[in-house]
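I'll show a typical protein example:
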Amino acid sequence: MLSHLQDQPADKILGLMKMYRDDPRPQKIDLGVGVYKDAEGKTPIFRAIKAAEKKLWETEETKAYVGLIGDPAYRDALAKLILGDAVDPECIAGAATPGGTGAVRNCFELARMADPDVRVWVSDPTWPNHLSILKFMGLPTLSYRYFDSETRAVDFDAMIADLSEAKSGDLVLLHGCCHNPTGANLNLAQWQQVIDVLLKTGATPMVDIAYQGFGDGLDEDAAGIRLVARSVPELLVAASCSKNFGIYRERAGLAMAISQDAARRDIHEGALAHLNRQNFSFPPDHGTRLVTMVLGDDDLRADWMAELEDIRLGMLRLREDLASALREASGSDRFGFIADHRGMFSRLGTTPDLVERLREEHAIYMVGDSRMNIAGLNKHTVPILAKAIVEAGI
């Protein structure tokens, strides 16, 4: 049986990580991997998470399973952080998952359980694992235009034109904030127009929100998803705590199904629990419990929010510094979009050949589609990158 297995396509980002590690050049810069790094190139543990871990170590009395949906307190705390008061909590079904990827997978599974013929609309471009999971599941996928490589902004008219072709029963995948891989976001008026199209076509939205707090602020980054939640009859949400709580390896995610009909909540949550049972049984608890502790303690929450804000502002400064350095190096404002983008990523909108040239000639590593991780920079590497981009002819 196993002799029939074939090599699977290599993950481009993981391959890039290996190439970076093997590169002996001391001046190399890693802008590829999608993990937050501070100025020293480290992914720090939040102070509040460290404090919560210490408290948990001192007070935890069992490692027994929690439940198929995880601790309901985690669902409630994270749903409140994301959705605010947009919907009645009694309308929110949720289940903990192994990271945001587990939440994405279970949302797709839930949509297929509800309608075996579901089609999924995905932005062009999107996070590659969205497409990989959909392909593995065999779900029909359609793309809607999203990013204009000339302006490096949202191609909104094209997006609306494409989504207008959606049908009732289709699932439309949207990025909640800090679009990965482009960094180009919808404004609130554009979110409303997307909602109008969804209501007209009858398509169901699914929002993947993995970077809340990394863009314009915790509430500002959630404004779009909250508008969707209060406007549509049904909504799926895949949430991740990896980035904004810094607990990547703890794999803390949440899949939510929201309906304006509160009577449907138990059915939806039962379906999510069933999917957890089939896919991995009981979800991990350590990371989700830390998140619950931080959000439920006034002092820990305040310290977490302060540190998260420092991270957000630091990335904004890097964006502004890079845009300024590129303006000086190129003698033009054509890279001003970098300061306008939000989150960890920006997409330069250049060719794979020029990205390869950056790697070969300047030891600068980014994904072939020209997505770069802004958090991989510091004040010393910003001018180096700006000079290399201009010299490469981008």
